[in-house]
Amino acid sequence: MYSIGPLTVAPGGRAQGLIPVGTSTYGVELGIPLIVVNGAEPGPVLCVDAGVHGDEYDGQQAVRQVLAETDPATLRGTLVGIPCMNTAAFEAAARASGLDHANLNRIFPGDPEGSYSFRLAATFVEQVVPAIDALVDLHTGGTFGEIAPLTIVQGGYEDLATGIGLAAGHELVWKGGKWGGTVRHPTLAAGKPAVTIEAGGGTYREENVELHVSSVRNIMRHLGMVDGEVELRDSYTAVTGTFARSASGGFFLGHAEPGDACKEGDLIGQVVDHYGTTLEEVRAEKEGIVLWVRRIRTVRPGDEVVIFGAVEGEITP
Ligand SMILES: [Zn+2]
């Protein structure tokens, strides 16, 4: 039997249910929705989550699709899906929850005495992390921008996470980032591999759902959970991202697409006022790759407009 949160699942079985975190003001139970497929044969427990940011939709559908298409009769180990980690942010159609406006992906391991998002993070650490062996965290560029497909392997945990990171299949591997508090951190700290996979954003697209689905399937092959040869690239490109923020408010005009190569000084975008006068130019700081580009045209001072990726080297599997 496999147990996680309120669920107990026999080998070869499926289950779904909510790990409770609290109740809404109108008395409805809030929490973390789970879908579990427990394989007939023993093997590792892989957790795939999405919706840490409520306005990132492609991964949420990918989790449901992978769980629905996984046959427990031929699965070795257990697949745990969290289709929408941050249901309160999803309800708000926003990155952060309307309950406390905290960015869930900066506050792990959370606080069981804190506001809703902090309690949610603490519940994940207490009930999910001990029940899994590896974590794949699906994101997009959010409502406001689009990101090139890439995998984030946390700096300092390369030995633990590079294997599943390369099996995610994207050429770009972001070693970093410098920030803490993501869902990866408490999982890696518990000695379990964890990566974040980014693709798409700006809107919902089936092709990005498919990208996430193929990454998860290849990681399942890498972990020996399903039959089939792991597909690996001959080489991967290690990048580190730098966020460019606008000093001016205005209308953002983009001149590059996510994944485009850039040379130092290339014009990536500009901020113009309502009359068309250029207020600010965004130029590449150095040679590299444009990782994320703003899609929402409204820019306020301090808003992110571009993420540049500096190439750090090559990774060969
Ligand atoms: Zn995100």
Automatic annotation (TrEMBL):
Key words of the record: Hydrolase, Metal-binding, Zinc
Entry's Gene3D superfamilies? Zn peptidases
Top-level division of the source organism's lineage: Bacteria
- A Pfam family cross-referenced in the UniProt record is AstE_AspA_cat
Question: Where does the Succinylglutamate desuccinylase/Aspartoacylase catalytic domain start and stop, copy by copy?
Answer: 42-222
Which InterPro entries would you find in this protein's record? AstE_AspA_cat, N-alpha-Ac-DABA-like, N-alpha-Ac-DABA_deacetylase
The protein's required cofactor(s) are namely: Zn(2+)
Annotated protein name in UniProt: Succinylglutamate desuccinylase/aspartoacylase family protein
Q: Which organism is it from?
A: Lentzea roselyniae
